[in-house]
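Protocol step 4 of 5: obtain the predicted structure for the target chain.
Materials: sequence only (see below). No template structures provided, no constraints applied. The aim of this step is simply to have a reference model before the mutagenesis design in step 5. Sequence pasted as it appears in the construct record:
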Amino acid sequence: MSTILDLIGSLIFGGALMMIIIDANGAATQTQEQYSGDMTVQRELTDVVGGVESEFRNMGFGVADTAATILNATSSSITFLSSLDGSGVHIDTIRYWVGTSDELLSTQNELDRPLYRSQNGGGDVSVGIVTTFSLKYIDFNKDSMATPVVGIDLRNIQTIEITIEVQNPYAEYREVGTVQAGERNAYYSSSLWQQTRLASQNFKR
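Step 4 output (structure tokens):
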């Protein structure tokens, strides 16, 4: 009788131990997936931000003090002037804008959208995939400006706050029962970059 009880006890203990091992393995796998996703989005954000930061930093370079640097300004697009070759003689027109999520239906992340760039009215070039590309404009009085900024108000833009977010296009699906009302049914690693830049190199800090 005791042998049978010992056997049953061993089976129960072994089953419980197996469940603990399975749960631990699942947790370790999830942690590894999140870490891998975090590394992926950080690399992608660095790739996107590299070009954007460089051109926004040189916004207005070579443009005369009396000329407008920004030609168009909305919350999701901007057109500005800069001398890209550094000569200060040839002035280029650069435009950045964000597309719509409908343009990237092939990705698992429903918030993905392309970030575009064009130069001197040339062809549209996708410079990356983002979930957020947001622009905030601030005047000389440090007040936020309503968008779109139009007409003579474009000359009143002193600084621009740029916000870019990139999320992993590959979903890590959440278990049923862990998703609360209003939450997404998948987890996406994300990385956010935000910076404030002068609207022209002619401005003095």
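Step 4 remarks: Confidence is low (pLDDT under 50) at residues 24-30. The first strand starts at residue 70 and ends at 73.
Proceed to step 5.
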